Amino acid sequence: MKKENKKYMALRVFLFVALLSLLGSVNAQEPPLEEQKPCLHYAYTSSEDYNFLILNQSKIFGQEIRFIHNCEYLQVNLEGQFYAISNNSMILTLNQGEHNFTVQTNEYTQNYTIEIFPDRLQWEYEYSRLNFDQDREFISVDVANSKEVVASIASIIIVWVLCVYVYWRLIESYVNKNFIEEVVN
């Protein structure tokens, strides 16, 4: 038994040394150096301790949009009109709602459609969104909760009335079938 353990131990050591020798032969090349770096930009908003990267068709929190770029210039057109241009990073303030803007650099143009929510992450506790129509309507949570309470009370009353009616009918039919009334003149 000890001889078999020694064989397996020797085999494990041999495989370990063979794998180590293969790992030592790996090498990497340096990336090619480019004189001019490509133009990159990104935009994000912040709300409390969280950051939200802006993409097309995104919904974000916070009203200050920060643009970071390494381009010669970055121009922002809001709703088809010139809004801002910068050679460095910039911060733009937009109101809540849906916005269309275009980002132009020296190399490309990109269109964005975003929806901005209030500058706090607890917004769903303060507003309920109703989408009955294309127009968006925000109502307070108190109004939404009062509607829920009224609907709950109304459904309780309706169920109670139906149960009492059904039981009343069952009891009435049982009494009519099983009890005889005596009429005295």
Key words describing this protein structure:
alpha+beta; 3 helices; 35% helix; flat
In short:
With 185 residues, the protein is of the alpha+beta class. It has helices at residues 2-23, 123-126, 141-178; strands spanning 41-47, 50-53, 58-61, 64-69, 74-78, 81-86, 90-93, 97-105, 109-117, 127-130, 137-140.
List the SSEs and their pairings.
Layout: H1 2-23, E1 41-47, E2 50-53, E3 58-61, E4 64-69, E5 74-78, E6 81-86, E7 90-93, E8 97-105, E9 109-117, H2 123-126, E10 127-130, E11 137-140, H3 141-178
Parallel strand pairs: 3-9
Antiparallel strand pairs: 1-2, 1-4, 4-7, 5-6, 5-8, 8-9, 10-11
* Oligomeric state: single chain
Shape from CA axes? flat
Give me the Rg, rounded. Answer: 36 Å
Helix content: 25-40%
Distance between the termini: 114 Å
Order of helices and strands: HEEEEEEEEEHEEH
Strand order of the largest sheet: 3-9-8-5-6
The tally of beta strands, per DSSP, is 11
How many strands, what sense, and barrel or not for the largest sheet?
Answer: 5 strands, mixed
Beta-strand fraction estimate = 25-35%
Low-confidence stretches: 128-132
Helix run count: 3
Mean pLDDT: 79
Global structural class: alpha+beta
Walkthrough of the structure:
About 35% of the residues lie in helices and about 35% in strands. The protein contains 3 helices and 11 strands, in the order αβββββββββαββα. The strands form 3 sheets. Strands 3-9-8-5-6 form a 5-stranded mixed sheet, with no helix packed on it. A 4-stranded antiparallel sheet has the order 2-1-4-7, with no helix packed on it. A hairpin with a 2-residue loop joins strand 1 (about 40-45) and strand 2. The longest helix is centred in the C-terminal third of the chain and has 38 residues, at about 140-180. Mean pLDDT is about 80; it is low at about 130.
